[in-house]
Amino acid sequence: MSTATAPVTGSGTIAGTTPPKRRGKVRGSADAAQRAKPVWAVVTWVIVVLFFAPVAWMVLTSFHTESDAARNPPRPFAGLTLANYESIFSGSGKATPFLINSLTASVLSLILVLLLCIPAAYALSIKPVEKWTDVLFFFLSTKFLPPIAALLPIYIITQRIGALDNVYTLVILYTSMNLPIAVWMMRSFLAEVPKEILEAASMDGAGLATQLIRIVLPIVSPGIAATSLICVIFSWNEFMFALNLTSVRAATAPFFVLSGVAQEGLFLAKLCAASTIVSLPVVIAGFAAQDKLVRGLSLGAIK
Question: Can you name the residues that pair with 262 across neighbouring β-strands?
Answer without folding.
Answer: 265
